[in-house]
From TrEMBL:
It is found in: Nucleus. The keyword Thylakoid does not apply. GO terms for molecular function: DNA binding. It comes from the Eukaryota. This is Putative DNA-binding pseudobarrel domain-containing protein. GO terms for cellular component: nucleus.
């Protein structure tokens, strides 16, 4: 069933490679489909690499939809599924916006490492609900 998700939901097409990797390694992926369907229109996700543990780029299309072409806010609040809230400052460099100061606290708290999938669902322009999948399982699913 999970392999047909990109066909059923066109917004998931760019996730195809991450979905295939996760579906080959883990069995709880139905939760990913359910959680992604419950997010707003401007959600974005990323499969983490080592650099993302210190600073994570916000995709250009997501940033422009959230904040327009002007400069974004100086900081955002990130809510995790276990109820914690983190104040994360944003930094701009070379036309990109990054989660910067405070992002490493989120990474440590959730135990995010290379290969984890993170899904950001904006609740408003300065607040995100973060769903993370470590070893294919969402922390909120336990």
């Amino acid at each position: 069933m999970f392999y047909i998700l990109p066909v059923l939901h066109p917004r998931l097409r760019f996730l195809n490679s991450a979905i295939q990797r996760f579906s080959n390694r883990y069995t709880n992926l139905y939760l990913l489909w359910v959680r992604v369907h419950q997010v707003t229109e401007h959600w974005f996700c990323r499969e983490m690499n080592r650099a993302d543990q210190l600073i994570m780029a916000i995709p250009d299309d997501a940033a422009s939809k959230l904040w327009g072409v002007d400069k974004g806010p100086t900081n955002v609040m990130i809510h995790t599924e276990d109820g914690c809230v983190f104040n994360v400052f944003l930094s701009a460099s070379k036309g990109k916006i990054f989660f910067f100061h405070g992002w490493s606290n989120v990474v440590v708290h959730l135990g995010l490492t290379k290969g984890c999938l993170v899904v950001f669902n904006p609740l408003d322009p300065t607040t995100f609900k973060l769903t993370s999948f470590v070893d294919g399982v969402s922390r909120g699913s336990s």
